[in-house]
Write a structure and sequence with these properties.
GO terms for molecular function: DNA binding. This protein is α+β, with helices and mostly antiparallel strands. It folds into two domains: 45 residues, no CATH class; 67 residues, Orthogonal Bundle (Multidrug-efflux Transporter Regulator, Chain: A, Domain 2). It is 53% helix and 13% strand. The chain has a three-stranded antiparallel beta sheet with strand order 3-5-4. The chain has a two-stranded antiparallel ribbon with strand order 1-2. A hairpin with a 2-residue loop joins strand 1 and strand 2. It starts with 8 loop residues before the first helix and ends in a 5-residue tail after the last helix.
């Protein structure tokens, strides 16, 4: 499960030009095939290309995809043993297929969002305490 990374400067200019022309109602053509961009598709392509232009790795995973523990750990940026511990502690829903654990991408992303939210809350608390103590934050 690899990510897409876009770094070529010549490609960056071409992607920027292409991205600027993306809009709902426009038609994308590839040889005989064509696709009319809905507002949702236009937004999706805009976000995808924007991330690539910022040099971010991008993965497209269906929300209902069932991931192996290795794939899930890679998406979270943690070790597989750490992910397995999270699964066993019930922090991320999973099920077993035979003896192998599977995690839905939707559940993994929900955990990631909750974890980020909690991190922001903790940071806000620390900043508040630092301000109360007059530490200059």
């Amino acid at each position: 499960m690899g990510g897409l990374l876009f770094t070529s400067t010549s490609s960056v200019e071409a992607v920027k030009a292409f991205r600027e022309k993306l809009a709902p109602g426009k038609v994308l053509r590839l040889e005989e095939a064509s696709l009319v961009l809905t507002p949702e598709l236009a937004r999706l392509f805009q976000e995808l290309l924007g991330a690539l232009l910022r040099g971010e790795a991008v993965r497209i995973v269906p929300l209902e995809a069932e991931l192996t523990t290795g794939q899930a750990a890679e998406l979270l940026g943690v070790s597989r043993p750490y992910l397995v511990r999270l699964l066993e502690e019930g922090k991320i829903p999973h099920h077993k297929v035979g003896t192998h654990r599977r995690v839905r991408a939707r559940d993994l992303l929900a955990y990631l969002e909750a974890s980020r939210k909690r991190g922001r809350e903790l940071l806000d608390e620390l900043i508040g305490e630092a301000q109360e103590l007059g530490l200059g934050y």
